[in-house]
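Course assignment 3, question 2. Fill in each field.
Student: A.L.
Task: Predict the tertiary structure for the chain below.
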Amino acid sequence: MKYRRDKYGSPVSVLGYGCMRFSKRAGSIDTAKTEKEILKAVENGVNYFDTAYIYTGSEAALGEILERNNLRSKVNIATKLPQYLVRSPASLDQYFNEELKRLRTDHVDYYLMHMLTDLKAWENLKENGAEEWIAKQKQSGRIRNIGFSYHGNTEMFLKILDAYDWDFCQIQYNYMDEHTQAGRAGLKAAREKGIPVVIMEPLRGGKLVSMLPKKAQDLIASTPYSPAELAFRWLYDQEGIMCVLSGMNSIEMVEENCRIASSHEPGSMKPEEFALIEEVKKLINEKIKVPCTACGYCQPCPRGVDIPLAFRCYNEMYMENKWSGRFEYAQTVGLREDPSFPSQCVACGKCESHCPQHIHIIEELKNADKALRPFPYGFITDLARKFILKQ
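Answer field:
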């Protein structure tokens, strides 16, 4: 495993464990399976684990596993304050103390203001005493490094970066998002200020592996790299990146990602590798309809629409084939007891206000519904629902 240094010189594994996508079983975290995956990651040198208050069950599962295996002193925990829920100075302590209890620890190594999208969110925290509170927690040792996670445009990222003496920050960044969100310009600005950057969504929610167009798959298959390796190598090649998070949920995934993280240094990519990535990007852009990463921030929809799944199947129609996307949608959504079709959307806008990708969800849901359920697919799905759900 390769390691890079944080702002104060402590070593951080270049591969971090993203805990939002822990293995699930029957809708809940499969703790036994997740434990094996975490142990394998630690065995291979991973020492950075990223979770959050709103990742259902994640903090508690991580805390339980680390405590049971006596691993707390060997790893760094990163978790996040749900700043969008803070309404008073007292709530800062309330949420943080709850997180410490879930994590079974007396301190957090890397603490983030979760999902800042504009300067107003940070100003709201300051009005509720955040700066004084942070200073107190750092002095006591309950927080070792303070940062923020970001979803928004480059201009606003630069403002937030300058608004406080941050120890680190976290951004969505991958070869498809090179010039969106904080982007390469944001990464450069952070590096110039000496602020290490943690990367989230390096594979765009797995889409740069599992949902590549057929032509892109074939192109990568003709090279020595796997799709994941190509995406990670592009990131590890860049200065300023301290750690790249991956939502690993299989032993095979852990082993592959650890292998990749152990073999690449900044500035070592070759011109032909960059050319390969540019060609892959071109092939992806020819097919993708909605840049959704399935992060789930748009959920739950008040009307029950499964937004990420609708967009995943919609994209699948154009990245794989139309029958595949429509069939999967009919299976996964059409036969649910509680329907969750895009047609149930009432345009309340709640989803759009939370979307890190700033997708025009309301309009795109209409497009997705037309594509996924044209006649006779919608009619057949309705008949199947009536027949199956009566059984």
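Instructor remarks: Residues 317 and 323 are 7 Å apart (CA to CA). Confidence is low (pLDDT under 50) at residues 385-391.
Grade: pending
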